[in-house]
Design goal:
The complex is a heterodimer. Chain A is mostly helical. Chain A has twelve helices and no strands. Chain A has one domain. In chain A, helix 2 runs parallel beside helix 4, helix 2 crosses helix 10 and helix 10 packs parallel to helix 12. By secondary structure, chain B is mostly helical. Chain B has a domain of 235 residues. The longest helix of chain B has 28 residues. The relative contact order of chain B is 0.21.
Chain lengths: 305, 359
């Protein structure tokens, strides 16, 4: 039974960066911007997050460094796609290429160093409940933060006026503009929120998952987060399910390797990526009638004065 | 003060020509600042990057060797991007082509197989690359799944597959447990052009690919359809062009070219199959395609230029201890500037100073 509890705990830890990054991208895409640079913002967030924590010894400062780095990169993206009306797909790719290079440059100074991981919550009594105690009351702070964030995003999108305006920008930027809403400014804030979340998601990896930084440690998680948004049909609640499902696939393949299942380890490692392809196909097929994507997603908007 | 975009009445052809040059200039300025931050003399660093490799024949050959896969992949990608199909998994197609072609090399190793081996390897590599690229293309046209995400996911799968083969069934028994196949037989190796040099037949093939791309785009109906579907999807629909068929076609061509580049790289400069056969050619080729303005001749020039940054990066690392990642940063910044300058072709930038409103 303890193994079961341990597996659940690792699944939650593996899912949290996916959930964080996907939450940010969901808001960005709901405002009508497709930022394919999640992977790049995450890996720079990881490098800066680790650097901040290693220099100051504080996990919180590390997380803040990750957030700032992710936001800074997303601002470059916003400047290009919103300010200069450049193709969003190509700019997102450029952001990822740049991010991978930058993270190597930033991280070169502290490859091989270690830090203490973020502490886990401990409430005497509650945390000691067998089986579920540690799952509910013994996580690191980021896990709770990611869940609080997605609830907040849900509330913002569906229960506030600002959220409605943001969704309007994503569905029909011409109408939103005609109604007098500053489409580009709203989109810029959405992109920045996405960058902050991606930076935090990246920082989670060295701060709470593995206590060191390795170049390329995000290993495609940013891309999986992008796929998760599609999987969730741009809805926050489904995003949680999707993120935890993917976390489970990642962890179970690791355990399957440990149990010595007679399958090459590389095939098991490929499972999360294959699962992403299969899920994308199934989801897209099921939706072939009407699309649930924000109607203006990925389109350039140049306001006419 | 506010920057506003104003749509031009028609695309500016002058700017279309000079915009890559502006982008390169801005990149060099940015890189100089980066070198100063890293505490290196920017003049000598830029010299090591862009001038030193041009001064000896070994480096010049090496540039052509590196440009070969870049140009071949980028020509294929440019067809996809022109048709508004986003293949970003060329890296995976490159690896799969390398694996498939190597299969023949591994199976015929030590036998007295004749000169059919290399052509068969090249054909199989290209076919495998094309089939691998068709997976995301079919998922796209049949089910509407985003080809961007599926093609990228398949890069990781291809990487792991190659890793499995060279650590498992194909590992060289005499290779001291290193994850690599045995060196390919001479009949399974791409011949070099100059005895004792590094330049190989692949460079000629790349030039043929450039010519083929130029003919396809400029002189055939299919090329015209590709350009119209991308530039004016509605007009293409009225013209009766089948955009799904074009997605499949452009993906298949770009996959085939990436696969061909992969097997040429393995059977040429490397000589055996091992992990890490590509320093990200499939991704750098995206930059090459855009820097070359999705035009075959432009891509040839852009490919040589980015190959120069690879070689220059290595030399700068040896000579000035500049980290290799600077090359990636350079490539990323370059792509940003290229895209930003391209915006000038369609729009005019104008600074607006808002007149103060009287309350």
């Amino acid at each position: 039974m303890e193994i079961f509890e341990a597996i659940i705990l690792t699944i939650l830890a593996a899912s949290t960066p996916l959930l964080l990054a996907a939450t940010g991208e969901l808001v960005t895409e709901r405002a009508g911007v497709l930022n394919l640079g999640v992977e790049g913002m995450m890996i720079v967030g990881a490098a800066c997050g680790f650097g901040g924590a290693w220099l100051t010894g504080s996990v919180i400062i590390g997380a803040l460094c990750g957030i700032v780095a992710g936001t800074a990169l997303s601002l470059i993206f916003a400047m290009m796609t919103l300010g200069l009306a450049v193709n969003q797909v190509a700019t997102g790719l450029a952001l990822t290429i740049l991010g991978i290079g930058l993270s190597g440059l930033i991280g070169a100074g502290f490859v091989g160093e270690r830090i203490t991981l973020a502490p886990h919550l401990r409430i005497p009594g509650l945390t000691d409940i067998p089986l579920v105690g540690r799952v509910f009351f013994g996580e690191d702070g980021f896990v709770y933060l990611s869940l609080a964030l997605i609830v907040a995003v849900w509330y913002f999108l569906y229960r506030t006026r600002a959220g409605l305006i943001l969704r309007a920008c994503g569905d029909n930027h011409v109408s939103a503009h005609a109604l007098g809403y500053p489409v580009l400014r709203i989109r810029m804030f959405a992109v920045m929120f996405g960058g902050a979340c991606a930076g935090l998601a990246g920082a989670y990896l060295p701060l709470a998952y593995t206590p060191f930084f390795v170049p390329g440690m995000t290993a495609g998680r940013g891309w999986i987060a992008l796929a998760l948004v599609v999987f969730a049909s741009w809805r926050p609640a489904r995003l949680v399910i999707g993120a935890y499902l993917f976390g489970a696939v990642t962890i179970l393949q690791l355990h399957a390797q440990g149990w010595g299942v007679g399958v090459p380890s590389q095939l098991m490692s490929a499972l999360p990526y294959l699962a992403t392809v299969i899920v994308l196909v199934l989801i897209s097929r099921a939706r072939s009638g009407g699309s649930t994507a924000p109607a203006a997603l990925g389109t350039v908007f140049v306001p006419d004065r | 003060m506010q920057l506003v975009l104003e749509k031009r009445a028609e695309r500016s052809n002058t700017i279309a020509l000079v915009s890559p040059l502006i982008a390169i200039g801005l990149t060099i300025v940015t890189m100089s600042i980066l070198f100063m931050i890293l505490g290196k003399n920017p003049v000598s660093a830029l010299g090591a990057y862009f001038i030193a490799p041009l001064t000896d024949s070994y480096s010049l050959q090496e540039i052509a060797v590196k440009a070969t896969p870049l140009v071949m992949i980028a020509i294929g990608l440019s067809l996809c991007y022109l048709a508004n199909a986003w293949n970003i998994g060329a890296e995976g197609q490159f690896l799969v082509g390398a694996v498939a072609g190597s299969w023949i090399a591994v199976k015929t190793q030590g036998t007295d197989a004749g000169h059919w081996v290399l052509p068969a390897m090249l054909l199989l590599g290209a076919a495998a690359g094309a089939l691998y690229a068709l997976i995301p293309a079919i998922c796209k046209v049949r089910f509407g799944a985003s080809e961007i995400l599926t093609s990228l996911m398949l890069v990781y799968v291809a990487d792991l597959f190659l890793d499995y083969l060279v650590r498992g069934p194909w590992r060289d028994p005499k290779g001291f447990n290193f994850p690599t196949t045995a060196e390919f037989d001479p009949v399974a190796t791409v011949p070099v052009l100059i005895e004792g040099g590094r330049l190989h037949l692949g460079a000629i093939i790349a030039l043929i690919v450039v010519a083929g791309g130029a003919v396809l785009l400029g002189r055939t109906i299919k090329g015209f359809e590709i350009r119209v579907v991308g530039a004016a999807p509605r007009a293409a629909r009225f013209g009766g062009f089948n955009s799904n068929q074009l997605v499949l076609l452009t993906f298949a061509i770009s996959g085939a070219l990436a696969g061909l580049a992969g097997i040429i790289e393995v059977a040429g400069p490397i000589g055996h199959l091992q992990p890490g056969i590509s320093p990200g050619y499939g991704f750098t080729a995206i930059i090459v395609a855009f820097l070359g303005r999705l035009n075959p001749v432009g891509i040839l020039i852009a490919g040589l230029f980015l190959a120069l940054t690879f070689i220059g990066g290595e030399q700068a690392q040896i000579a000035m201890k500049i980290p290799l990642d600077v090359t990636k940063v350079f490539q990323g910044i370059l792509l940003f500037y290229v895209l930003a300058c391209d915006s000038l072709i369609l729009y005019r930038f104008r600074l607006i100073f808002p007149s103060r409103q009287v309350a």
